Amino acid sequence: MVRRLVCFHLNTLHSTHQQLFLSVAFLQALHWLKMLNSLFINHQDQKEALAIERRRRFEESRKQRIFNARRRIIGVDTDALGYQVQEKQEALQAESEQARKLAEEVHRQEQVLLLKQREQRQERIRQEDELNRFRATHQRPEQSRDFDLFDPDGLKKELPARTGDDDPRLSVSGAQLFDGEDLQERHRRKVQREQQRSWLEQQIREKRQAEIDRRAAERFLEETLMSREARVHQLNAQERYAREKIQEAVNEFNRRLMHEQDQQRRRKDREEQEDNLAEIYNHLTSDLLTENPDAAKSSFGPNRVITAQYKGMSPEELEQIRQQQEQQLEELNRRRQEEANTRESWDRLANDFDRAVTMKERELMRRRHALAEQIRHENHQLALDQQRKLAHLDQVVYQNRPTQAYFDQFNTCTR
Q1: How far apart are CA 353 and CA 247, in angstroms?
Q2: Between the CA of residue 371 and those of 94, 110, 131, 364, what are the distances in Å?
């Protein structure tokens, strides 16, 4: 029993000693950890303090450089200014390009509008012509249902008072018809029914034809609207092609006219020179200068000479001269006619050019007026927008006015 108590106390003391040893070791480890942590924290604080001191000294030196009027270098940021200038130039170029595109679009829209107006006018004229032809063909007065009421030849078309001896309209007193003697009633009613049936069939046909015409007109209108844009491009190409052809024709006509005038002048000079040479030759070979003895021959004999007779030319020579004169007269008339035709052609061409230039000037004047009106409207709209914007800025945006405290916070540091 005693041994057990001793063992129990020994075990209790041993466990207590172990617990005490563990507690001491734990306290020593905790002490060392606190020391290490304090050393680490002191090291971090020192690093932060050194960084703060370094930044403070750098800020002080920067203040001395910037706020010192003698040591400060005054200048501008050329790169930023150049970038701003470039942005402004790009904005101006964009605005000019946009204005140019707008002007081109306005010009194109004007061309398209003029072409569409011309097409609409032509289409309206064509429809009116077709309507008049349809009226002249299918809506004549004699085709009307009640034409027999106002037919000027109605009396001529009616039956006479007597068609024969067995005419049921005749009677003893000479009257054509008495009451109750309608002998043609059955035939008349049959004819009336057939006539009503024909009228109804004609009305049905007319309604069907009108419906077909309406649908055809709608299809034609849709096709016209679909092909209008293509027609505009085709008209532009044809207009350019026609202008080029007209210019080429005018140039070719001028070249041909110049060549023809040059040839006429040369031919005239050559003919005049030939006429002068012929005249000189005729004078030199005439009987008057050569004293041809044949002119002095007498009719009494070949050897007889009439000394007092004039030495004139022979009839053959006179006939030849008259023929040449007639040819020269015909040539002169022909040249005068050609010159008159040429002058008339030039006058007609000049009138055509004057007319075209006048029409073009009027068209340009109308376009200028329309463009000026559009610009005036746009400027008025822009002025209204600017007034609304300024009113919004004055009434809403610029209500918070800055105080002196707002300006005092600037220029206190180098940043």
Answers
A1: 12
A2: 21, 10, 38, 10
Beta bridge partners of 305: 297
Name which of 121-130, 171-180, 261-270 the model is least confident about: 171-180
Angstrom CA distances, 210 to 53, 60, 206, 215, 292, stand at 102, 100, 6, 9, 100
- What six digits make up the tokens of 105? 């679009």
Quote the CA–CA distance of 293 and 311 in Å, as a whole number: 8
What burial letters (b/e) apply to 308-346, b meaning 16+ CB within 10 Å? eeebebeeeeeeeeeeeeeeeeeeeeeeeeeeeeeeeee
Q: What is the pLDDT of residues 21-77, one digit of tens each?
A: 455 556 665 666 666 555 556 667 888 888 888 888 888 877 776 666 655 554 455
| Three-point CA angle 402, 404, 406, nearest 5° | 60
Phi/psi for 219 (5° steps) reads -60, -40
Instruction: Give the CB-side neighbour count of residue 323, counting CA atoms within 13 A.
Output: 6
Helix, strand and coil content of the chain, in percent to the nearest 5, comes to: 80, 0, 20
**Letter for the amino acid at 415?**
R
Q: Are 177 and 169 in contact (CB under 8 A)?
A: yes
Tokens found for residue 309:
């007779």
97 φ/ψ angles, rounded to the nearest 5 degrees: -65, -40
pTM, to two decimals = 0.21
Distance CA 378, CA 384 (A): 10
Q: Can you tell me the distance from the alpha carbon of 260 to that of 338, in angstroms, rounded to the nearest whole number?
A: 11
Amino acid at the residue 194: E
Distance of alpha carbon 410 from the chain centroid: 59
Q: What does the pLDDT look like over 388-398, one tens digit per residue?
A: 888 888 787 77
Which H or E run contains 313?
A: none
Q: Give the model's confidence band at 293: pLDDT under 50 very low, under 70 low, under 90 confident, else very high.
A: low
